[in-house]
Structures are given as structure tokens and as C-alpha cells.
From TrEMBL:
Any GO CC annotation of this UniProt entry: cytoplasm
UniProt entry tagged with the keyword Transit peptide: no
Residues involved in a divalent metal cation binding: 178, 223, 278
Pathway: Cofactor biosynthesis; pyridoxine 5'-phosphate biosynthesis; pyridoxine 5'-phosphate from D-erythrose 4-phosphate: step 4/5
The protein, known as: 4-hydroxythreonine-4-phosphate dehydrogenase
NCBIfam families: pdxA, PRK05312.1
HAMAP family per the UniProt record, alphabetical: PdxA
Length: 338
């Protein structure tokens, strides 16, 4: 472990998406946005080409060790070569041939954190279907990072990663994530809700400094099941989970009807909401703050944040996408690593 402040490791993201240019735009905003130092784990030649195509004047400096990134950062965007290069990298046109480079960037960045050479990882978006086409076996970063966590010393495998989308107004945690909607009722169990809530409560306290956090738990069905008339998951699964959490001393409330859980007065009653499926939690966050939302993975032995948006292929290469969510992700990672 090096002494002194260290630079955050930023992965390259989908080469065909907006990620590479957002990294350049965030670097350009470093002084105005008072950003922590960071370096990109990627392919220098590819980044140089994509930034130039997007009309961004960003000098790059290849580094061989993360410890030199801080000294370089004010003058140039430091880039530590990933183990695999980008072979296609055409804006707007993902290629399965680039999956190796995308995955290597993530794996290498996490390894640097494991070695104590970077304090945390910030990940621009990946094009998930492109990685699946190349045989990637995880739904997204969240699950992949959970898997990589087993390499960390003292971590008892398997790690259960928990996705949280956060903005000033709301923190939302989907209990089920990237699964078909029709699979949700079968996947929802009391154990899954309790396990998720315990991780959220622990990390809100330990990483976010929220003492004794208040967790609201959403129902699955309209009107939280209307006493069992419109579905029984609330009675048979969600309420028993809440009761178990209360028995553990966790301040959990619910099941709350999903449609009345996100207006300002309702949001004032909790520090985070557990939603039963992806869109139930992500729609409110992205509606309130698409340009500021941050995706943070809880339950990992290290800090990982990400912008809330995806690869926006139709904007890639134009230099017009907004870097504000990535900037917020860098700021939050910096805060959480201190
Ligand atoms: N953390 C990650 O790796 C994430 C990856 N994705 C992936 O991204 C791909 C595309 O997903 P979509 O659902 O289309 O969502 P998206 O966020 O890429 O795009 C949704 C809409 O928002 C716009 N948009 C997105 N980011 C923007 C920005 N920074 N500035 C201005 N406008 C922006 C897009 O142009 C589009 O109109 C999918 O493969 C998905 O899996 C999506 C979310 C997170
Ligand atoms: N919709 C959020 C999302 O897709 C984030 O996925 P991940 O790659 O961060 O797991």
C-alpha cells in the first residue's frame, strides 16, 4: 500500500459507447468540479482516437504504476494500459471482439484495488448484450464485481453484491436486479429480502455514516396486495422479512405500496428504499436525477461507483453526452474511500 492520497481507477467501459468520451470530459472538468485524481485502465491508442473523434482536447499520458497518476493528473489524463487492447472500438457499433478489452479493464482495475494501489473503482457503462454475445457469464458489473471479490484476502466467498442507485433525493435498492419480470415473484424470498436489507443497513452505516438507517420496503403488488386480494407476496414473504429485520434491530417499515413511496413526504421517512424489482426503484431515481444519479455497489470489500445511465450508443462519438453522472460517481467514490 502506498502512503498519501491515491488516484481512483476508472475502467474504460463499452468502447462503442459514450464512456470513453465522458472520461475525457470529466478530466476536462477536474478543476471546476473539484474532482479527485483518477486514471483510466484502458488502451491508450484507442482512447486517443475516440477522444479526438469526439472533438475533445484531452492530453493522455501513459503510466506504468497507479502511484504516478496523482502527479500527472493536473497535466494529462493518466492511462494505465489494460492487459487487453481494444480491437474495434467504433463509436455506436459494439463488437464482441472488444469484450476481452472491456473485461480486462474491469478485472485489472479491481486487482489494483486488491493490491492497495487504488482506493476504489469507477465504471463507465458496459453494453451488456454485446458482452453476453461474447460469452460473458454475469448479468452486469454488479455480479461480476461480487465474483471478483472472492480474490480479496479475508473475504468469505461468495460475496453478495447489492445494487443501490443514489441521488440527493433518494437511495433505491432493487432486491431482484437483472431478471425477467415474470421471474420476480419466484425469486423473491424472505431470506433474499433480509440478506439484502442487512447489507444495506450495514453499508449505509459504515460507508455513508448514517447511524441506525431507516429502510422502507416496497410491496410487490398494486396497493401492497390490498390485504391479500391482489397478491399474497406481501403477507407471505415481505412482511415476515420486515418482522425478522425488526427483530434484528433494523428499522424497517412496510410493505409500502410502490406508487405512494416516492413523493417528497414519503421519501423524508426513510434513508433507503428496498424495491422488489429493478424498474420499481430505478424509474424514480432516474426521473428525479438522471443527470446526477450514481450506481453504487454495496456488500463488496471495496468501493465501486458508476454513472446511472447506460452506453447511449446513438450519442457516442459526438462529444455531446453529459458527464455529470460520471462526475457524481467520481465524487461519491472519493467520499466513500475516505
Ligand atoms: N452500469 C452499466 O454498465 C449500465 C449499462 N447499461 C447498458 O447500456 C445499454 C443501453 O441502455 P439504455 O437502456 O438504452 O440506457 P441509456 O442510459 O444508455 O440511454 C437512455 C437514454 O438516455 C440518453 N442518455 C444516456 N446517457 C446520457 C448522457 N450521459 N447524456 C445525455 N443523454 C444520455 C440516451 O441517449 C437515451 O436516450 C444497455 O446495454 C444497458 O445494459 C445501462 C445502465 C447501466
Ligand atoms: N440498470 C442499472 C444497471 O444496468 C447497472 O448494471 P451494472 O453493470 O452496474 O451491474
Amino acid at each position: 500500500m502506498n502512503g498519501g492520497p491515491q488516484a481512483l481507477a476508472v475502467t474504460q467501459g463499452e468502447p462503442a459507447g459514450i464512456g470513453p468520451e465522458l472520461i475525457g470530459m470529466a478530466w476536462q472538468a477536474r478543476a471546476e468540479a473539484r474532482l479527485p485524481s483518477f486514471f483510466c485502465v484502458g488502451d491508450v491508442a484507442f482512447l486517443e482516437r475516440r477522444l479526438a473523434e469526439a472533438g475533445l482536447a484531452v492530453p493522455l499520458r501513459e503510466i506504468s504504476r497507479p502511484s504516478t497518476a496523482g502527479a500527472v493528473f493536473q497535466e494529462a489524463l493518466p492511462v494505465l494500459p489494460a492487459r487487453e487492447s481494444i480491437v474495434s472500438g467504433i463509436a455506436g457499433k459494439p463488437s464482441p471482439a472488444d469484450a476481452g478489452g472491456v473485461i480486462a479493464s474491469i478485472t485489472d482495475a479491481v486487482e489494483l484495488v486488491r493490491l492497495g494501489e487504488a482506493p476504489g473503482v469507477v465504471t463507465p457503462p458496459i453494453q451488456k448484450d454485446n458482452l453476453y454475445a461474447a460469452g460473458f457469464g454475469f448479468p452486469g458489473h454488479t455480479e461480476f464485481l461480487g465474483d471478483l471479490s472472492s480474490r480479496f484476502e479475508g473475504v468469505a466467498a461468495p460475496v453478495r453484491p447489492v445494487m443501490m442507485l443514489a441521488c440527493d433525493e433518494l437511495r433505491a435498492v432493487p432486491v431482484t436486479i437483472h431478471v425477467p419480470l415474470r421471474a420476480v415473484p419466484e425469486l423473491l424470498t424472505k431470506a433474499l429480502i433480509v440478506e439484502t436489507a442487512v447489507i444495506v443497513a450495514r453499508d449505509l452505516e459504515a460507508r455513508f455514516g448514517i447511524a441506525d438507517p431507516r429502510l422502507a420496503v416496497a410491496g410487490l403488488n398494486p396497493h401492497a396486495g390490498e390485504g391479500g386480494a391482489i397478491g399474497r407476496e406481501e403477507i407471505e414473504i415481505i412482511l415476515p422479512a420486515i418482522e425478522e429485520l425488526r427483530g434484528m434491530g433494523i428499522r424497517a417499515t412496510g410493505p409500502h405500496p410502490g406508487d405512494t413511496l416516492f413523493h417528497p413526504a414519503a421519501r423524508a421517512e426513510y434513508d433507503a428504499v428496498l424495491t422488489m424489482y429493478h424498474d420499481q426503484g430505478l424509474i424514480p431515481v432516474k426521473t428525479l436525477a438522471f443527470d446526477r444519479g450514481v450506481n453504487v455497489t454495496l456488500g463488496l470489500p471495496f468501493v465501486r461507483t458508476s454513472p446511472d445511465h447506460g452506453t447511449a450508443l446513438s450519442l457516442a462519438g459526438k462529444g455531446t453526452a453529459s458527464p455529470t453522472s460520471l462526475i457524481e460517481a467520481l465524487r461519491l467514490a472519493d467520499r466513500l474511500t475516505r
